[in-house]
Amino acid sequence: MSNQSVGLAPRALAMVIDGALMLAASTLLMWAVYGDPVSKWTDLRPGTLAINWLLPLAVCVLFWSWQGATPGKLVAGIKVVDTRSGKHPSPLQAALRWVGYLVSAIPLFAGFLWARVDAEGRTWHDRLSRTAVERSREAPADGEGLLIGYIASHWRGEQNLAQSFWINHVLLTWPVAAGVQGLVAWLATKSEGLQGVAIALLIAWPLLIVIEVWSAVGTWRSVRGYVDAGGSYLISGLARLSLLGSFLQIAFSLALGVFSEFPELWKLARGIDPIGNVRLSVSADGRTMQFNGPIGAGDAHRLGTLLSESPAVRLLEVASPGGRVTEAERMVELIRQRGVGTRAVGNCESACTLVFLAGNKRQLMPGAQLGFHRASSGTFNPAFDEIANQELARTYRRMELPEDFIEKTLSTPSRRMWYPAADDLVRHSLILPPPRTLDVALPEGDKPGQYAPLVDYVNALRASDAWFRLDQRFPGLIDDAAGRMRNAHMALAGSEHAAAGAQIAAQAALAPNVREMLLNGSRDLRRRYLQVLRAQLTAAQALGAETCQSWLSGSPVPRRLLPEEAMALEARWLTESAAETAPLRARALQATALELEVVARTVGATAAGAFSKLWTDGDAGPAPISCERASLVLNQLQRSTAVAPRELAERVVFQNVR
């Protein structure tokens, strides 16, 4: 072997190159396995030990015993040899040398610096493994330097095919390409330091193209030299086929990577998120915050600032197509710290679902939906997509999303959306169950003894599908009902009837509108309500004759004694009827004497006005007929076969004709 000594500079260059390659591989593998690219020194999980310790050991042993050099040493123009034979070290020597690295590094890298004072320029790990580091090629006479010389020799195709293909083309280029793709994937799902990452990508992509062109062209020329030297046509053909794929990949990267992503990266580099930013605003009373639009970079900070400036906020109304997952995760912490509720007033999709699920009380307004789908890494690499979705699954598990929801989410393509049914959301306690009747949960004040502001009563009514639809049909209804509800709640404070009185007061605001729909609505609308009346009448009769007569007279008190199912039927009827097109005429025509005579002959003399007191305050006098007669009227209406008289009777029973 040669006694030519290698200084610290080539060794350091080789270590930097090898370290960068191993760092890239470790980062990707740690992200793939654990969803976190960085591990701590105290991390003793099997996967971490294999990636960060066993993998470097295996790579070094393989390359030292095979080529006598790792990729970094090949670039630096140095190699490891057995001091006795001058050949490549054995696998055992290579393993001892790797362990010696640790010995040399522990005392402040004293083992590496020992080469400066050693007579043969050898380090501690050299001595331990009986190896030495020599130059694998002479430095160029023109003073280019070993690194420049290595780059030039590969470009000219002067290196052997194995080294050009496996070292320069595979091991040097592919990790760099994977690293750039990883940055793109990270950029698509994360948002920490987006501006810096975008700038790095704008620099890295052109460098990657240059490296790939250098690697592919040099290897192609090396194949030609390999064939000229009598090499195998099969091996050369396979190498060229692989290189053609590399050239196509370069073109693909240019077309779909650099050129297509450049506008967005350029915006990010200037501090502008191309997907936009969420619009945040606080209501006039300071208790509700509106959250609309895509979640972009910096939005979590904006949300935190606005929450700190608005201490009275108790509810976050969201409507968003999603956006940056990391920003949404930061918002989750802010929302949970404040203990505010969330309400989806429009579609809340993708990353927005994290924000919604962070609320201590979660409501889904009528027409709003929660949308879930797979994450997209922003690359065409399925491996990065899988890594991104593993992280998404972990995030949803932290949010306590049911496992079947997570499975369905991960099976929904990123370009589509899965909207679970509201019943499924209620079943898994992801949203509050919507009120089945017209009764709503009364809001509580911020402190004991305080009453909630009017807006909280408005929000409580808006959470009901029936009230929400009715307010769309009769604008201003909820505001009126909320005012009455709050006033009654405060007036009856301390009474056991406070809650019931508040509900009665709110529903009193609805009474004129219900009568309007019954008198002016369609035939089908009235016919469906008669089915509701049949169920309520049966329930009222079961409560006793006096209670039934009070209910039939329009008193709101006995209505509260009816079973929930009977009242739920009425709430469903109100919801469906509110969506019906309003009639063209302003009011129903009063029945003529002739029409009343027809009704009396076909249905009965007591049919006209039989249910005219319903949805009144009960102060207009007793019910026109008894509950028994009312039941007979309903039966007779159902048995009536003549279309015109039946339609007339179904309208007249609600008119006040007496």
TrEMBL record:
<dbReference type="InterPro" id="IPR051791">
    <property type="entry name" value="Pra-immunoreactive"/>
</dbReference>
<dbReference type="Pfam" id="PF00574">
    <property type="entry name" value="CLP_protease"/>
</dbReference>
<dbReference type="GO" id="GO:0005886">
    <property type="term" value="C:plasma membrane"/>
</dbReference>
<protein>
    <recommendedName>
        <fullName>RDD domain-containing protein</fullName>
    </recommendedName>
</protein>
<keyword id="KW-1003">Cell membrane</keyword>
<dbReference type="InterPro" id="IPR023562">
    <property type="entry name" value="ClpP/TepA"/>
</dbReference>
<keyword id="KW-0472">Membrane</keyword>
<dbReference type="Pfam" id="PF06271">
    <property type="entry name" value="RDD"/>
</dbReference>
<dbReference type="InterPro" id="IPR010432">
    <property type="entry name" value="RDD"/>
</dbReference>
<dbReference type="InterPro" id="IPR029045">
    <property type="entry name" value="ClpP/crotonase-like_dom_sf"/>
</dbReference>
<feature type="transmembrane region" description="Helical">
    <location>
        <begin position="12"/>
        <end position="34"/>
    </location>
</feature>
<keyword id="KW-1133">Transmembrane helix</keyword>
<feature type="transmembrane region" description="Helical">
    <location>
        <begin position="46"/>
        <end position="66"/>
    </location>
</feature>
<keyword id="KW-0812">Transmembrane</keyword>
<feature type="transmembrane region" description="Helical">
    <location>
        <begin position="165"/>
        <end position="188"/>
    </location>
</feature>
<feature type="transmembrane region" description="Helical">
    <location>
        <begin position="194"/>
        <end position="217"/>
    </location>
</feature>
<feature type="transmembrane region" description="Helical">
    <location>
        <begin position="238"/>
        <end position="259"/>
    </location>
</feature>
<feature type="transmembrane region" description="Helical">
    <location>
        <begin position="98"/>
        <end position="117"/>
    </location>
</feature>
<feature type="domain" description="RDD">
    <location>
        <begin position="7"/>
        <end position="129"/>
    </location>
</feature>
